[in-house]
Amino acid sequence: MNKKLVPIFLLLTYLLFPDQAQAQDISAPKYSNEFLNIGVGARALGMGSVQSAIVRDATAGFWNPAGLVGLPKRHNAAYMHSELFAGIIKNDYGSYATNLDSTSALAFSVIRVGVDDIADTRRLQNEYGAIQYDSIEFFSVADYAFLASYARQSNLIKGLTLGANAKIIYRNVGKFANAWGFGIDAGAQLRRGNWQFGLMAKDITTTFTAWRLNPDELEDTYLKDQESFNANSIEVTLPRLILGAGRSFQFANRFSALVATDLEITTDGKRNTLLSTGVVSVDPRVGVELGYANSVFLRGGFNNVQQIEDLDGKSSWKVQPNFGIGVATRGLQLDLALSKVSDNSQVSSVIVSLAYSFD
């Protein structure tokens, strides 16, 4: 964490979470709040999550709030559902965005990623060793994010829009633990003719998430293993930057193309990315969208460039391909994306999203 931010962070911690602050267990794990990096919207995910420079719909509240200036209609709503790991994890997203006037816009978004109906069998046997099926309880493990976004057109530079997010995070592990967090994102977009440029800065103040464990539910488990545990802790999510650029093309009046790229720069140490150091890692993405009469769209993209080691110990570079299609008519848009496609072409993630815009 930037040394200049440490006093501010500690002050907020003591003011807002005095119990957690007294525990003095603060860490910055590499993948803190990683559920916020899965992505939203079938259009975006079908293009390999390339959106920072080109997004202009209700999902801009997530990808880059500056893109809210440019919404197609006054009222814009979007919903997405996807399932990961053969349906075990449910990923849902909803947003509403509106133009306040010709130069500003506002949006609200909700994200939920969770696993439901997990069986708690700790009390399956009673003190006599008999099985009691009615003692089985079920719980959910879910992560929530609530985003409020605002965007405004710059009065100084033509084509420049600026935006920001305030986000509240809630994470729940049944009755065993829960956490609250708060963070701020900021973004910018610049449009010059057919060119579009974007900058998204996530967790610019470092996002902290304060965990509170339930000792009554967990203490027996730890004592059996002769381990001690801290009932309170704080995770810190370090900033990341996304730089993007895109260009649109028009052919024969009815055909169009959009080519875009993003560079995601993380600051939490070395990751398995194309470019990485002990301090930062850079993950490139490329996306393409082909359109006909602004009604039918075909999309594709590549992301997650990683070095994978096979069973023989040989390493090779792999990329994740993504595909998508979309249909739009009278303000209604339906998108479908196939993501996380493996080498043997088995699809492991299907994303469906629906958007509607009206005046």
Please give the largest β-sheet. Answer: 14 strands, antiparallel, barrel
- For the record, the CATH class is Mainly Beta
Distance between the termini: 45 Å
Strand content: over 45%
Which terms would index this structure?
18 strands; 14-stranded antiparallel barrel; 359 residues; globular; 5 helices; 10% helix; Porin; mainly beta; disordered N terminus
Structure explained in plain terms:
- There is one protein chain.
- With 359 residues, the chain is mostly beta strands.
- The protein has one domain: Porin (Beta Barrel), CATH 2.40.160.60.
- The protein has 5 helices and 18 strands.
- A 14-stranded antiparallel beta barrel has the order 2-3-4-5-6-7-8-11-12-14-15-16-17-18.
- β5 and β6 (160-173) form a beta hairpin.
- The two termini are 45 Å apart.
- Residues 1-24 and 342-347 have low confidence and may be disordered.
- Residues 1-23 form the signal peptide.
- Keywords: Signal.
- This is PorV/PorQ family protein.
Helix-strand blueprint:
Elements (H helix, E strand, L loop, with lengths): L5 H11 L1 H6 L2 E2 L14 H5 L13 H4 L11 E10 L4 E11 L4 E17 L16 E17 L6 E14 L3 E16 L2 E8 L4 E7 L1 H10 L7 E6 L2 E12 L3 E12 L8 E2 L4 E12 L3 E14 L5 E15 L2 E10 L5 E12 L1
Parallel strand pairs: 1-10
Antiparallel strand pairs: 2-3, 2-18, 3-4, 4-5, 5-6, 6-7, 7-8, 7-9, 8-11, 9-10, 11-12, 12-14, 13-14, 14-15, 15-16, 16-17, 17-18
